[in-house]
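During data preparation, a discrete fold description was generated, as reproduced here:
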Amino acid sequence: MKVTYFEKDDTLVIRFCEKPVVRESSRDWHTHISYSAEGEMVEIVVLEAKKHVSDPKNLEFVIAAA
């Protein structure tokens, strides 16, 4: 997983894998999800990230146990 924050555009991109994107879906104006040909989520893009994430430059992730 790769997380990139573009401060100039205030855009947060969370990339889960390097598969090509074949379909995109907008959940709302700020949240866009991209999918692979197999239907797997490839990335999430959050526009105006500072409105939705407390500190997009310093995200922390917790991996949940299965």
In short: The chain has a mean pLDDT of 88.
